[in-house]
Amino acid sequence: MACRRALKAVLIDLSGTLHIEDAAVPGAQEALARLRQAPVTVKFVTNTTKECKRTLFERLRRLNFDIQEQEIFTSLTAARNLLEQRAVRPLLLVEDSALEDFTGLETSDPNAVVIGLAPDHFNYQTLNKAFRLILDGAPLIAVHKARYYKKKDGLALGPGPFVTGLEYATDTKATVVGKYRAGDEGKINPPPHLTCDSFPEAVNHILEHLLGSK
Q1: What total of structural domains would you count in the chain?
Q2: Are strands 112-115 and 154-157 parallel, antiparallel or unpaired?
Q3: Do residue 53 and residue 122 come from a single domain?
Q4: What is the C-alpha to C-alpha distance for residues 84 and 62, in angstroms, rounded to an integer?
Q5: Could you tell me if 85 and 40 lie in one domain?
Q6: Per residue in 16-33, pLDDT tens?
Q7: Inside any domain, residue 4
Q8: I want to staple 196 with a disulfide (CB 3.0 to 4.6 A). Which of 60, 191, 202, 210 is the partner?
Q9: Residue range(s) defining the domain that contains residue 52
Q10: pLDDT at position 187, please?
Q11: 71 CB contacts (<8 Å, ≥6 apart)?
């Protein structure tokens, strides 16, 4: 098959693109299977912070997606890499199901604050502890800063409002390691060739126009 463009890899989002909680997006498994047949590398990236990479991988396998754990790169992985680079001890405001991705890090006497999606820990006591650490000089690290995310029953608050609240209260700016906001594709230079409304639509375009032959 003669390639029309030098397309070497496809980066695929997970939540909202392949699945929403425990339900696959219609047509997503079939679209991924078709893409796997093309001469292009496939990798997966996600802002998901409510569960560790292993649990996320197992969820995707239960939904019959053709995917390997080592193909997934998460914002939790990016956060851990940054913590190791800075050699800091984090206060982890993440769900208990996400803690596995931080195994082995020293967390006693924290001198950094990490915030992901943590509905069970977004309470006054924990946020005030984070507030005081930041006032004492601890860096604020946001796994991502999404305002909301999609659940099966509707939209739900993301970590962004809590990160912004701490930024305002402490007069500091967070280091954001994950993806940013909807609309950021408009800031890319050069601009994107095309934006699609669904993963199957994107795969159709890739196969027909970027990897296809006349």
Answers
A1: 2
A2: unpaired
A3: no
A4: 32
A5: no
A6: 899 988 899 999 999 999
A7: no
A8: 202
A9: 9-74+183-210
A10: 63
A11: 42, 43, 44
